[in-house]
Known about the structure:
Blueprint: H1 2-10, E1 14-18, H2 24-33, E2 37-41, H3 45-52, H4 63-71, E3 75-78, E4 89-92, H5 107-119, E5 125-128, H6 136-146, E6 157-160, E7 179-183, H7 186-199, E8 203-206, H8 209-240, H9 244-251, H10 275-285, H11 291-316, E9 326-330, H12 345-355, E10 359-363, E11 369-370, E12 381-382, H13 388-393, E13 396-399, H14 408-414, E14 418-420, E15 433-435, H15 445-451
Parallel strand pairs: 1-2, 1-4, 2-3, 4-5, 5-6, 7-8, 9-10, 9-13, 13-14, 14-15
Antiparallel strand pairs: 6-7, 11-12
Helix pairs in contact: 1-7, 5-6, 8-10, 8-11, 11-12
Residues 18-24, 41-44, 47, 93-96, 108, 111-112, 130-131, 163-165, 167, 270-271 line the site of nicotinamide-adenine-dinucleotide.
Amino acid sequence: MNELLRKIQSRDARTGVVGLGYVGLPLAVEFARAGFRTVGIDLDRRKVDEINAGHSYIPDVPTADVATLRHAGRLEATTDFSIIRELDTVNICVPTPLRKTKDPDMSYVLSAAEQIAKYLHPGLLIVLESTTYPGTTAELLQPMFESTGLVAGRDFFLAFSPERVDPSNEHYNTRNTPKVVGGTTPACMEVAAALYGAAVETIVPVSSTRVAEMVKLLENTFRAVNIGLVNELALMCDRMGIDVWEVVNAARTKPFGFMPFYPGPGLGGHCIPIDPFYLSWKAKEAGFEARFIELAGHVNSGMPHYVADKVGDALNTQRKAVNGSSVLILGISYKKDIDDIRESPALDVMHVLQERGARVAYHDPHAPVLHARDWPGKTDMASVELTRERLAEYDCVVVLTNHRVFDYEMIVESARLIVDTRNALGADAGDHVFRLGAPPRVRSAARQEQTA
Ligand SMILES: NC(=O)c1ccc[n+]([C@@H]2O[C@H](COP(=O)([O-])OP(=O)(O)OC[C@H]3O[C@@H](n4cnc5c(N)ncnc54)[C@H](O)[C@@H]3O)[C@@H](O)[C@H]2O)c1
């Protein structure tokens, strides 16, 4: 252990990161920036080639940073796991998706761990960062690595440290977001904390890998449940003729005991819609039913249908049906100002509208193309240009992601009918704007006629 601690201290340790995606690349860059010779390992040849060419493909990581670290000889990438023989530390940052049945899909973690086990050597520190159920490190990884004959805490070191990346966050990044770390043994904890201490400002040690795994699931379940609560409140407000946005914005003035969450078209991304089900799956094994998680999942997954209903209601005021209407979707990534469309509720809204007979197009400068394989509509699509003329052509325009680059003034002025699911346009944008969770400003054309 002392030898590894010395190498970390002197920056002679060679660090490795397996999985160079939204989480792994920023981490590899941070280790390299801290002075370690870092190697990224990924199965995706294109990502490896990009890094070796000094390019970044992750918006939060500037290409200039990758280029500088490449030039300094501190960052490289490979598809060849045998490099692990030469490494002192390896962080695993591979995907942890759900299967269709909402059970954890551990195949990526298992396959990465199998490769690491092949090249495991005395003195190596392995840290799992992928979000997963409590018990993964102790029940799945430790026995795999110990089947080599080496023992955790004595011959090699094993820890779990959840990643907390928040894409597009301008304030918090890998370096200044506190890092929770749990070790398999006290020695594992000590070397893992030393490694992160070199690259991250604040380390939060916890007593075990299980606690560290659970911390991450609490954080994401907290978000999923509160978003579920506010989404249900939006449905309630819609029925009761109350503006949910006004309610949340007034409630957030309470200086203590309240944290604002906002409604929207549903959950998206690689974390919030998925991670809580890792917990409920594991809880079931212990005979425990995680009711909040299931309920929040139920409310949140119903939101795309509610948005489609809202589009139908809006079209109805103009005596039009969804079937045969042209609908332009604004924004398909799961949150504003990012390019990530994984699990994006926009894709479900588009699909539901298509199923109801609408002709759907989209505009998103962050996602210029949408491949058939990436959404339930299963057709290739491309972002259409956004002009005043084009906006005016559609029967309805739906704001699903409130990107900052959108010219909202032009959208309000040019579109005939708008459904705004993010309160991007505010309460006073006009009678042709229908907001999620808020009463319409006008009576429908049919009712106006009836009462005339
Ligand atoms: N994206 C986020 O905002 C975020 C935030 C916190 C935690 N997480 C968690 O971090 C983990 C990684 O997420 P991500 O968003 O970086 O995923 P990602 O899909 O962006 O990147 C994963 C990378 O791993 C590579 N990979 C897959 N299997 C591999 C294998 N066996 N060996 C080597 N490389 C392999 C893929 O090619 C890909 O480049 C997940 O568990 C996720 O839940 C993600």
